[in-house]
TrEMBL record:
Highest rank taxon of the organism: Bacteria
Protein name: Cytosine deaminase-like metal-dependent hydrolase
Pfam family, one: Amidohydro_1
Higher taxonomy: Bacteria, Bacillati, Bacillota, Clostridia, Eubacteriales
Gene3D superfamilies assigned to the protein according to its UniProt record, in alphabetical order: Metal-dependent hydrolases (3.20.20.140), Urease, subunit C, domain 1 (2.30.40.10)
SUPFAM superfamilies: Composite domain of metallo-dependent hydrolases, Metallo-dependent hydrolases
Alphabetized InterPro entries for the sequence: Amidohydro-rel, Metal-dep_hydrolase_composite, Metal_Hydrolase, MTA/SAH_deaminase
A single GO molecular function term of this UniProt record: hydrolase activity, acting on carbon-nitrogen (but not peptide) bonds
């Protein structure tokens, strides 16, 4: 199998398993990529020992919506998302995006992935739709290179935009592709990278960017390809585009997607804050999931997604950071805290708030379901050894340690974790990403950002 690792005497192991078990003062034994056993006084013969005293252990968080390429378009007050409509913001920000090349993709992906790992995320989906004349086609390839370098489990969403501005989209010509180009590259990426095996470290998702910025044929061909190859589908939906869709197609976006087959248990959407309760019901019936991204909703002043109502309709809700241009952070731990506070804000009128622990399961168990990963999402024998640990021996946590299930979102544990493990490999510990020279990567990335974007784009001035 592989080398053995044992976490000894952990103060608490929060499993997120179907019984919601928490093991106190216990051990967690790992062999190769998977968990073998959880319990007290496990044999540690031939195993590398990680001292779990004063540590809480959790399943790795799973991020189900992001745009890594946007990590180099942060902290720009010249394009201020909170003071713009989504369509207005897209029109301005795309003028920067068209400058992005493969170097930006590589270093911005490293930046986002590193941030995710430092904050307990072990498996990440990214929606990469920024295909420019400057960047070429092998941008997911650069992301796969970055993911392998850091050791994160990566699901790449190959996106696209095909509809020109002259026909009502917000996309510059330099960022357009044909449907044929898009489908051809999806086939190439699936052939080269998609691994459906247990404990897979990389998979491909067919993910046209959004219905208002592509031809209907792009979405129809996406459905046909994904179903023929057994991969999943993703897009943006319910984030302000419905007025345009009704004008263009005389129907709302979800109905438009359903009519062409872009719905079902192999499909999830991002955002959904514009959806109606009756649309929640249809999503539950078809098994279509939604990635809840708290940061852009708050920054944009949009309606807060009613997670209680979605849960009632049996919609699988997962958690996403979203792109840094509408978040400026790649910490899913921060998104977890924000999601809890957002739900608490409307708890009285909506019949109560999901507990912090229920939100943790959205970010773990439901994240795994969303990505089709029955080998991830909880700490159980036979599951992948994806986990993170926090140090409870910190003064600021004094008085909170009686409830490890709820502490993260309730108390606001949002800083870097003590340790992150992916597939049985420790990739972050004691403030250090392992196996890379973080300072060198930081300097290289800053140079790329300056050369390609800051010196070329008025928005940075």
């Amino acid at each position: 199998m592989g080398k053995k690792i044992i976490i000894k005497n952990a103060r608490a192991i929060v499993t997120c398993n179907p019984e919601d078990q928490v093991f106190y003062d216990s051990d967690l034994l790992i062999e190769g990529p998977q968990i073998l056993q959880i319990g007290k006084d496990l044999s540690s013969e031939d195993a590398q020992v990680i001292d779990g005293r004063e540590k809480f252990v959790y399943p790795g968080l799973i991020n189900t919506h992001h745009h890594f390429f946007q990590t180099f378009v942060r902290n720009l007050m010249t394009i201020d998302y909170p003071n713009m409509l989504v369509v207005e913001w897209l029109d301005k920000i795309y003028r920067i995006f068209q400058k992005i090349n493969s170097e930006v993709i590589y270093y911005s992906s490293l930046t986002a992935m590193g941030d995710l790992l430092k904050h307990g995320c072990t498996c990440a989906f990214d929606h990469q739709y920024c295909y420019t004349r400057a960047g070429g086609k092998e941008l997911v390839d650069r992301q796969m290179e970055a993911a392998a370098r850091l050791g994160i489990r990566y699901h790449a969403g190959r996106g696209t935009n095909t509809l020109p501005r002259s026909q009502g989209s917000t996309i510059p010509d330099d960022m357009l592709e044909t449907t044929e180009e898009f489908i051809s590259d999806c086939e190439r990426l699936i052939q080269r990278y998609h691994d459906p095996a247990p404990f897979s470290m990389r998979q491909i998702v067919v993910a046209p960017c959004q219905p208002i910025n592509s031809y209907i044929e792009t979405f129809k061909e996406s459905v046909a390809l994904a179903r023929s190859k057994g991969v999943r589908l993703h897009t943006h939906l319910g984030e302000g585009e419905n007025v345009i869709m009704q004008e263009r197609w005389q129907k709302r976006t979800l109905e438009w997607c359903e009519d062409i087959g872009f719905s079902g248990p192999d499909v999830w959407i991002a955002h959904g804050w514009e959806l109606y309760p009756e649309e929640f019901k249809r999503m539950g019936e078809t098994g279509t999931g939604v990635s809840h991204c708290p940061a852009p909703a708050v920054l944009g002043g949009f309606p807060i997604l009613d997670l209680k109502a979605l849960e009632k309709e049996k919609v699988i809700v997962s958690l996403g950071c979203d792109g840094s241009a509408t978040n400026d952070s790649s910490s899913l731990m921060d998104s977890l805290r924000m999601a809890y506070l957002m739900q608490a804000y409307h708890s009285k009128e909506r019949g109560g708030c999901l507990s912090p622990y229920e939100l943790l399961k959205i970010a773990t168990v439901n994240g795994a379901k969303t990505l089709g990963r029955n080998d991830l999402g909880s700490l159980e024998a036979g599951k992948g050894a994806d986990l993170f640990m926090i140090n409870t021996g910190a003064l600021e946590l004094t008085g909170t340690l009686h409830d490890p299930k709820n502490i993260l979102a309730r108390v606001g544990v949002t800083g870097p974790v003590w340790l992150t493990m992916v597939n049985g490999q420790v990739v972050f510990r004691d403030g250090q990403l392992l196996g890379v020279d973080e300072q060198a990567l930081t300097e290289e990335g800053e140079k790329v950002c300056t050369r390609v974007l800051r010196q070329e784009c008025e928005a940075f001035r």
